[in-house]
Design brief:
The chain is mainly α and 63 residues long. The chain is built from two helices and no strands. The protein starts with 5 loop residues before the first helix and ends with a helix.
Length: 63
């Protein structure tokens, strides 16, 4: 995705477009793909999602 330029395009659309329009802050996009891969990959994605949920309140408090 990154080599084809899709990552940068998605970041622009979401962070400057949708998130910016609605005033969301902090603005960060993290693409989690590969869920149809190995069981280890799925577990890593679930862990990252969980970690993001734990990090979000700290990001919001820091504002």
């Amino acid at each position: 995705m990154e080599a084809a330029g899709y990552t940068a395009a998605l970041e622009t659309i979401w962070t400057e477009g949708t998130f910016g329009y609605f005033g969301f802050s902090p603005r960060k996009i993290e693409l989690l793909h590969g869920s149809t891969g190995s069981a280890e990959r799925r577990q890593a994605l679930l862990k990252r999602c969980h970690d993001i949920g734990l990090e979000l309140p700290n990001l919001l408090r820091a504002q």
